[in-house]
Amino acid sequence: MNNGRQARRVLGQLQRGPSTRRAFTLVELLVVIAIIAILASMLLPALGTARARGVSAACLNNQRQLGISVHLYSADNLDWLPPIQAQITGGESSWRSYLFRYVGQAARVYDCPSEKVESYASAKSRPSSRPSPWVLGQFVDGEIDIPSGIGAVNVHWQSGGAPPPFGRPAGYENNLCRWGQIETASQLILFGDGHSDVYGAYPRDRWWIWKELGNANSPGFNRLAQGDPGAVRHLRKANYAFADGSARLLAGERIPCNTNECWWSAKADPH
Ligand SMILES: [Zn+2]
Question: Ligand 1 centre and the CA of 32: distance in Å?
Answer without folding.
Answer: 40
